Amino acid sequence: MADALKIGIAGLGTVGASLVRILQQRGNELAVACGRGITITAVSARDRTRDRGVDLSGVTWFDDPVDMAAGADIDVFVELMGGAEGAADKSVRAALARGVHVVTANKALLARHGVELAKTAEEKGALLNYEAAVAGGIPVIKTMRESLTGNTFSRVYGIMNGTCNYILTRMEKEGLSFEACLKEAQRLGYAEADPTFDIEGNDTAHKLAILTTLAFGNKIAADDIYLEGISNISIDDIHAAADLGYRIKLLGVAQKTETGIEQRVHPTMVPYDSVIAQVDGVTNAVAIESDILGELLMVGPGAGGNATASAVLGDITDIAKSRPGAQRVPAFGRPAHLLETYRQAEMQSHEGGYFIRLAVQDRTGVFASIASKMAENGISLESIMQRSKKQHAEGEPQTIILVTHATMEASVRKAVASIKTEGYLVGEPQVIRIERPKTV
Length: 440
Ligand code: NAP
Ligand code: HSE
Description:
By secondary structure, this protein is of the alpha/beta class. It has 14 helices and 17 strands. It has three domains: 2-137 and 305-338, Rossmann fold; 145-301, Dihydrodipicolinate Reductase, domain 2 (2-Layer Sandwich), CATH 3.30.360.10; 354-434, 2-Layer Sandwich (Alpha-Beta Plaits). It has helices at residues 14-25, 27-34, 65-71, 86-97, 107-124, 140-147, 162-174, 178-187, 196-199, 202-216, 235-243, 305-321, 366-376, 409-420; strands spanning 5-10, 38-44, 60-62, 76-79, 101-104, 128-129, 153-159, 226-227, 246-257, 260-271, 283-290, 294-301, 351-360, 381-387, 398-404, 407-408, 430-434. The protein is elongated. The protein binds NADP nicotinamide-adenine-dinucleotide phosphate and L-homoserine. L-homoserine (HSE) is lined by residues 136, 161-163, 190-192, 198, 203, 302-303.
C-alpha cells in the first residue's frame, strides 16, 4: 500500500470536528477505498483547551494555522475556519505556495480570491478542491466542473442557503418567529459565524458566484450580484404567498442573457406545486440547465457538520486516489488564465411576475389610484385584492396585494416609486419576485 496521505486541518468547529470524527471512525474503509490510509498529522484552532469530542492525541497542534500551512509535514491543508481574509486567506496561500493541496469549504474566500488562488494552485501543481463550499453535501461542483464538460449552460439557480430555507420553512409550517428559527439554525451548526451573511443573502451570493464561474467561464464576480436577503420577509408575506398558491424561497439565479450575465439573489415566490417549492428545512436544491443534458436538479442536505464533512471528505479522498504527476483538474473547470472578463446584465431588465404588498391608509380612491399607476407603467395585473380584517379600527391601515403578469423590473420600480408619492402608503412596500421554474 502507498504511504498514507498526511493532512492538516485548520478549524475544528462544526465541520472540522465532524471531519475528524469521520476520519477516525472510517479509517479502514477509507484506506481500502483509496488504496492508502489518510492520517491527520496536524490541526489548528483558536482554543486549545476546548473539548471537541474527538481524540487529538498524537496530532501536532498549531496555534497559528499559517505556521501549519507553511511548515507542517502535510500533503493536504484542509481549511475549515471561514472568512474571506485573515487566517483563512493567509494559510491557504501559504499552503499553495509550497505546492501543498488545499481542500476548503470556504465560499467567502473563494468568492473573493478564488481566481488568484486557482492560478497559484495551477502554477504549483496543487489541487484546490472546494466541493463543500456550495450547497453543503450536494456534489454540485464536481458535477458542473467534470461530469457536464461539453455542455453549454444557460441557467443555474436554486436554494443554496440551509439557514434561510430552514427559517422560512419553520416560520411557515410552525408559525415560529424569525428570531427563534435563526437561533435554532445557529444551535444546529447551520449558520455562518456571522449569521447576517446567511439572512442578508451574502452566503448565497458567494455560492452563486462560484457556480456562475463554473457555468459561464467568467472570472468570479461576487460583488456584481443583485442582493436581497430574507430579513424583511414577514409571516404575513408567507401567509399571503400561501393563499395565492406560492411558497417563498431565497433563490440564487444566474443566467446568460443577450446583454450579459444576470446574477441575483432574492426572496422568490415559486408555485406551490413546483419541486423547488417542496424543498424544506436545511435541504438545498440546485437546478442546472444545459444544452446536451437538459435540466438537472440536485437536492440534498445543504449545511451541518456531517453533510459538509461528507463533501470535504470526498475532496480529500480524490487527492488520496490521484497519482503523483497526473493532470490536475483546474479549480474552475478551465485554466484560470482562460476565465473571461465578466459582463453584467442590468437587473432593471429582469422580466418576471411580481407580488406587491402595500399597507395603505383606509380612504376612498386608493385602490383605483394603485390600479391606474400600474396601468400607466404598462403593468398587467393577474390579481389585485384588499385584505381587510372583518372589524378594523377607525384609521387602521389596509393591506392591498397585487400580483402582476410578467413585466420588466424597471416598470415595477417606477410604478412603486410613483405610488409612494401619492401620500397614502403606510411604511415601505413589499415587492417579491415570482419565478416559474421550467420543470422544477
Ligand atoms: P465554526 O463552527 O465557527 O468553526 C470554525 C473553526 O475555525 C473553529 O474551530 C475555530 O477555532 C477555528 N478558527 C477560526 N479562526 C481561527 C484562527 N484565526 N486560527 C485558528 N483557528 C481558527 O465554523 P464551521 O461551521 O465549522 O464552518 C467552517 C467553514 O465551513 C466556513 O468557511 C463555513 O462557511 C464553511 N461551511 C460550513 C457549513 C456548515 O454547515 N457549518 C457548511 C458548508 C460550509 P475555535 O473552535 O478554537 O474557536
Ligand atoms: N451557513 C451556510 C448555510 C452553511 O446555512 O447554508 C452551508 O454553506
